[in-house]
Amino acid sequence: MKYSLFFLPVLLLVSTLLAAQIVPQGSYAIKGSLVDNAQKPIPYGAVALYLSADSSLITGTTSGEMGQFELLAKPGQYYLKISILSFKEKLVPNLRVTDQPVQLGVITLRPDTELLDEVTVRGERSMMELELDKRVFNVGADLSNIGGSAAEILDNVPSVSVDVEGNVSLRGSQNVRILIDGRPSGLTGISSPDALRQLQGNLIERIEVITNPSSRYDAEGEVGIINIILKKNRNQGVNGSFTINVGTPANYGGSFDINYRKNKINLFSSYGVNYRSRPGFGNSFQSFTGSDSTFSYSETNRRTRGGISHNFRVGLDYYLTEKNVLTGSVLYRRSDGRNTSRYVYRDFGPMGELVETTERNELEKEPENNIEAALSFRREYDRAGRSLTADVKWIVSDEDEFSSFQQGVLGGPINLRQRSSNTEDERNFLFQADYVHPFGEKSKWEAGVKSTSRVLNNDFLVEQQEEGGSWQALPRFDNYLIYRENIHAAYMMVGNQFKKMSLQAGLRGEFSDITTELPEEDLVNQRTYFNLFPSVHLSYELAKDKALQLSYSYRLSRPGFRELLPFSGFSNARSLMVGNPNLNPEYTHSLEAGHLLNWSTGSLLSSVYYRYRLGVIQRITLVDSVGFNRIFPVNLATQNAYGLEFNYSNTIQNWWRVNANFNFYRAITSGRYQDQLLESDTYTWTSRVTSKMTFYRKWDFQAGINYRAPQQIPQGRELSTYAIDLGLSRDVMKGNGTFTLSVRDLLNTRKRRTIIEQVGYFSTSSFQWNARQILLTFNYRLNRKKENRGREGMDGDNEGEN
After folding, report:
1. What is the pLDDT confidence band of residue 797, given thresholds at 50, 70 and 90?
2. For strand 28-35 and strand 102-108, is the pairing parallel, antiparallel, or unpaired?
C-alpha cells in the first residue's frame, strides 16, 4: 500500500492519456473533486478504480489543478482508492455504476503527518526512498546496472561497495547480512561471493539498505542488512520483459520475467542464463629479513573465472479472498564454473640476485546447484494496517570445487602434480510468522517468531602424486567439517506518534545453538547463548520538508562459513587463506542520527553514526621461515567507528539529474595477538557521483565515478581505488524496447592494492578482477511500462526479515 504513492500517479497518468484518445463504448463518467480540511483543492492526487470482485485495477487518473477528477467505467460494482503524499489514503467503497454518470461530489482528505511508516524522497525510479528503518534504492534507471550482475548493481548503491573478489561491504565493513526477498537464500552463495556475480541484475526490482535494523529483523549483521528484491508483478493479463546482452570481456546472456493474472490466480516466472569469462591480473612483492637470512620473491598471476549459470523461478499467488493470499514458489539455480590461474614466482637471494623462477598452473571445475521452495500466507484485516503473515522455506545447496595443479621451473619439466577437492553442502529450513496490529489513531504493535535450522558439510582434501604415479593425501590439508546452526527468535515492537514525533521501540530475543565439528580430529565445539537485542527509532518532523531521525540497535555478527573452514583453497600454495573453527561472534552497539531535507527539485539526507564493536574479527598474516604466508581470522580487538554520510539528489533541469553520495569513516581498532600489539586508526572516505541527462527526449546519457580513499588496517594499509562508468540508452519500437550501451571501469582502474608491514616482513600487492567491460543490452517490454518512468511490482510482498 505504501508504495502506491510512488507508482500509481505514473500508471494513472498513462491510463488517463489513453482514455483521452479512446473512449470505451458503453462507459459512464465517475466525477468528483478533492479538498483538504480547509476546503482547499488538492491537485495531482492519484485516483484509482478497482473492481470489487477481485480488486483488479480498472483505470485511474490524477486530480486537476482545482482538485477535480473524472473516470470512465462500464456498469459494475467498484471501489475507489485515493492516494496522495501527506494525506491519509481514502477508500470510497460500494461504488455502483449503472447506466448514468456517477457524481461523487466533494471528497475531503485528512492530513497525515505520521512518520511511523515512512518519510519519502519522491522522484523517478532509481531515486532513494527513506523509511523509518531502511532506505530503498530502485535500480532500474541506472544505466550502468543494465545487463550487469547483482554484484555489479550492489557496487553502484550508495554506502555499498564490492571489492575485486566480490566481497560486499556496507559503510566500510564486510559484516553485512545479505537477503533475497527478505529471507536468507542460497542465491547469495554458501561461502563464495561468486553467487552474486551469477545472479543477473535484470531480475532485480530494488535493493533495500537497512543500516540500523529494528527488532523485526535478524540481529545478524554488524553494519546492517542488504535486502535484494526480485521482480514480480500482479497486473491483470499477461505482461513481462525480455532482455538480451552481449559484451566484452565475454559476457553473453538473456533473461525474462513473465506474469499472468486472472481473477484469483497470479502466475509469475523468471529465467536468466549467462555465460562469462572474466580475466584477472595481479602481482606482488614480498621481502623477508631475519636474524640469519634475507630473501624475497615476486609473484605475477593471471586468472580467468567464468562459466555458464542458470536462474529459474516460478510461483503462484492464489487469492483465497480479497484479503487472504497464499503464495508458493520454487527457485532453481545451476552454475558450471570453469576457472584457471597461472602463477609465476621469482625467488631472489640476499643480494637481490634471481635464484629461481617457478610456474604454477591450476584448472578448476566448480559445479553448483541450489533449490529453494517457499510457501507463504498473508491475511489483511478490515482495519487498515492490520496483517498476519506466515512463511516456510526449504533450501538445498550443493557446491563443489575440483582443481588440478601443475608446478615446475619456468620453461622446464613439471616436477609437482597436485589435486584438490572441496565439497560444500547446505540444508536450511526456515519458519516465521509476523502479526501487526494498529490501535488508537496513530499507534501500532507488532510481534513475530522465527526458527531456522541449518546444516553445512565441508570436505576438503589435497593430494599429491608420488613418483610411482599414486596419489597421497597431504595430512595438513585433509579435513572434514560439519557446521550445525539452530537459531530461535521472537520479537515485539510498539510504535506511536505524538504530534510531530514518532517513536518505535522493540526488543528481540535470540537463542543460538551452534556446533562446529571436526570428526577426523574428534573435536566438537558447541556454543549455546541467549541474547536480547533492543532497538529504538525516533523521528521528528521539523517542517513539511524537513525531518530528523535517531536510532539505536544492539547487534551481533556470527562468523561466516568460509571463516570457519580449516582450509578453503590451494591455488596459491605460498599464500593460504584459511579459517578458524573457534571464532566467536562479534557484538555491536550502533547509534545513528539523520536529517532529511526536501525541496521542490531534490533532497539531501545527512547522517552521522557511531559503532562500538567487541570481539572484532580481523585477518592476521603470519609468515614462516621459508616465506610462505598463512592468512586467518581471529577475534582480535575492540573498535570504535565513527561516520558521516550524505545522500544528495537534485533535478537541475528537467533533462538533467544529479545524484551523489559521500561517506566519511573513522575506525580505531586495538588488540593483541601472540603478545604483539595490533592497532590502527583509519580515516577514509568513499564517494559516488552520477549525472544523468536526456537529449532530444530519446537519448539518456549517464556518467558516474566511484572513489574509495586509502585506509589503515592493523598490519598495513589499503591504497585508494576509483572507477568511471558510462551509459547511453535509447527507446525504440514505440517505447516498448530499449537499447543500452554501457562501459564499466572506463580507465581500467578498479584494483585492490595492499601494503603489509611487520617486523622482518614487507609486502605489496595489486589485483584486478573484471577489466574494462563494454556491454550492449536490449530490453523488450510486453504490456508493461518502462521501468524508469514509474514503480512496478511494488506491492508490498516483502515485509522484511523477521
Report:
1. very low
2. parallel
Measured in degrees and rounded to the nearest 5, phi and psi for residue 13 equal: -65, -45
- The tens digit of pLDDT for each residue in 684-726 reads 999 989 898 988 778 889 898 989 999 887 778 889 999 999 9
User: Cell 544529479 belongs to which residue?
Assistant: 658
Q: Taking the chain, what is the end-to-end CA distance rounded to the nearest angstrom?
A: 20
Rounded to an integer, what distance in angstroms lies between the CA atom of residue 339 and that of residue 278? 9
Neighbour tally for 149: CB within 10 Å: 27
* Distances from the Cα of 653 to the Cα of 140, 298, 513, 695, angstroms: 21, 53, 56, 12
With beta carbons less than 8 A apart as the criterion, state whether 794 and 1 touch.
Answer: no
Assigned CATH topology for domain 237-789: Maltoporin; Chain A (2.40.170)
Per-residue pLDDT of 77-115, as tens digits, reads 888 888 776 677 788 888 888 888 888 888 988 776 443
What are residue 642's phi and psi, to 5 degrees?
Answer: -125, 150
Q: Provide φ and ψ at 28, rounded to 5°.
A: -130, 150
Q: Which of 347-351, 713-717, 732-736 has the lowest mean pLDDT?
A: 713-717
**Angstrom distance (rounded) from CA 554 to CA 309:** 38
Choose among 614, 685, 682: nearest CA to 645: 685
Rounded alpha-carbon distances, angstroms, from residue 258 to 255, 414, 477, 784 = 10, 53, 47, 10
Residue 37: which residues within 8 A CB-CB, separation 6 or more? 108, 110, 111
- Pairing label, strands 177-180, 225-230: parallel
Whether residue 712 contacts residue 754, with contact meaning beta carbons closer than 8 Å, is answered with no
Reduce the DSSP state of residue 676 to 3 states and report it: strand
Q: To which H or E segment does residue 319 belong?
A: strand 294-319
Alpha carbon 140 to its chain's center: 14
| Domain boundary assignment for the chain | 4-108, 237-789
Burial-class residue 654 by CB neighbours within 10 Å (0-12, 13-18, 19+).
exposed
As a whole number of angstroms, the distance between CA 448 and CA 215 comes to 10
Residue 663 CA to residue 686 CA, distance in Å, equals: 5
For residue range 520-534, list pLDDT tens digits in order: 888 888 889 999 999
Instruction: Determine the Cα angle at 205 with ends 688 and 698, to 5°.
Output: 70
Q: Are 247 and 195 in contact (CB under 8 A)?
A: no
Query: What's the CA gap between 761 and 348, in Å, rounded?
Result: 15
| 363 within 8 A of 340, measured Cβ to Cβ | yes
What's the pLDDT score for residue 298? 93
Of 723, 738, 721, the C-alpha closest to 685 is: 721
At residue 47, the 3 state secondary structure works out as strand
Read off the C-alpha cell for 10: 505514473
Model confidence at 343: pLDDT above 90:
yes
pTM here is 0.71
User: What confidence score (pLDDT) does residue 777 get?
Assistant: 92
Q: How far is CA 507 from the centre of its chain?
A: 25
Asked if residue 209 lies in contact with residue 135, where contact means CB atoms within 8 angstroms, the answer is: yes
Specify the DSSP element, H or E, that contains 226.
Answer: strand 225-230
| C-alpha–C-alpha distance, residues 561 and 539, integer Å | 37
- Per the CB < 8 A criterion, the answer to whether 240 and 258 are in contact is yes
Other C-beta atoms closer than 10 Å to the C-beta of 99 total 7
CATH code of the region 4-108: 2.60.40.10
Rounded-to-integer distance, Cα 186 and Cα 334, Å: 11
- In this predicted model, what pLDDT tens digit does every residue of 83-93 receive, in sequence order? 776 677 788 88
Instruction: Decide if 122 contacts 74 (C-beta within 8 A).
Output: no
Q: Which three cell numbers stand for residue 313?
A: 523461478
Asked if 89 and 82 count as a contact pair (C-beta separation under 8 A), the reply is yes
Closest CA to 618 of 644, 586, 589, 650: 586
